[in-house]
Amino acid sequence: MPAASLYPSLALADSPPDTPWLERLWLTLVAVGLLALTVAGLTSSFNYLAFWAGVLLVSAGTLGWSRYKFGQRPAGVHQNYLWVRGSTGRGAVAWVTGVVLTGFYVVLYWWPEYLENLVRPLDGLSQSLRQRPADQWFLYGTFYTLAVLLMGVRALYKYRHSRYQIIRTVSVMFFQFGLAWLIPALLLALQKPEYYFSYFWPLKYDYLFPGTVDYLVRDGKALGVFMVFWGAVMSFVATPVLTYFFGKRWYCSWVCGCGGLAETAGDPYRHLSDKSRAAWRLEVRLIYPILALIVLVTAVLWLGAAGVLPAWFTTDSTSSIGLFNNISPIDSLGKFYGFVIGAVFSGVIGVGFYPILGSRVWCRFGCPMAAYLGLLQKHLSRFRITTNGAQCISCGNCSNVCEMGIDVKQYAQRGEPIIRASCVGCGMCSTACPRGVLNLENGPREGRYQGSQLIHADSLRILS
């Protein structure tokens, strides 16, 4: 039997086989659905019919393709031809997809009026859920949730042999549909503040801003007080406790909507993450300063609200800094963060660059919640991925599937436990390993560094 059939990573350089006609049929349905949505967005005459026809065709095509592509073949992580396909190897299809995604986010944030033809067909659904007409954010939330659900089904077919991956995928689908789409809509229908219970500070950075706290308490009354309490407790009490026991995976891989989209819609691009040391250095130089920046912004806003800062710093003025004129420097600071990090980085780059840079660009380089969780995981958590170097065959499957840019194979070859702050505990390296070398564990803290310490001691003995 050829070696490439035993170890799929060896077949990556081969030319991909022709796509079966039935798979082409399902993909054609998806393409026609996307074309219908484009027509709906560009015209107003038949936009309702084209919109819903597009949604139905995309949904049916994705579900049918997922069942045919992944449900009809043996279970397992198949990595064949990832780097030579145009859609997953930074080819023409990938670049077109990236440009379309990036363009959608740019229009969504800065020219939402051009999405009006896509927004209006959702008025009926929005009225039934929220008791108000749809807007661009309801459109975005609906598309976002639909992407997680449809591609979540794909992930369930693809990883059906792994109980851990099944439960994890169902979890992100549940939290996105329930806590990030349905419940916020129902809160608006009840004349309560819109609130996403699955997002916390510092990721949802404005939830602990004084203006937001005042709005929640004033308009939400008792429920608003609970929302503020919920956000504070989850950020400063529950997050350290849960991370101590389970690592950052409890949030990044099981709850977070950003991670949910990356693990479902972004799964075809997970292998594109840069594993170089230069990328790791860039990651460290970006993500921790961003965490420090949002901590600073939050602290300054509270100091301003408490009257500690000078009046000129908190009063609207035409001499304000940056892109935001006629507002105070303290508000400019918050708006600057929201513009650069909250919109450009997390949206335009974080999702739009999936097909080129991998699915966790935002989580890896920009998310302050990931930085906060990573520090806790690195220094306080019981979580680690243990390795058995004696069983490693250096196939590279583990490194290829790591969306956080960790060269897992190097740890596995040396038998070192993986305790990297960036690891989101998705478990894909363990799922992809053909030898069972990698295991996710929540063990005693005193054993977290044991493997690396023993190897370091052995190296010193050899050198001496």
From TrEMBL:
PROSITE patterns: 4FE4S_FER_1, 4FE4S_FER_2
Domain of life: Bacteria
Keyword entries, A-Z: 4Fe-4S, Electron transport, Iron, Iron-sulfur, Membrane, Metal-binding, Transmembrane, Transmembrane helix, Transport
Keyword Iron attached: yes
Stretches that traverse the bilayer: 25-43, 49-70, 91-111, 137-157, 169-190, 222-246, 286-313, 336-357
Gene3D superfamilies in the record: 3.30.70.20
Record Pfam families: Fer4_10, Fer4_5
4Fe-4S ferredoxin-type domain span: 383-411, 415-443
Record protein name field: 4Fe-4S ferredoxin-type domain-containing protein
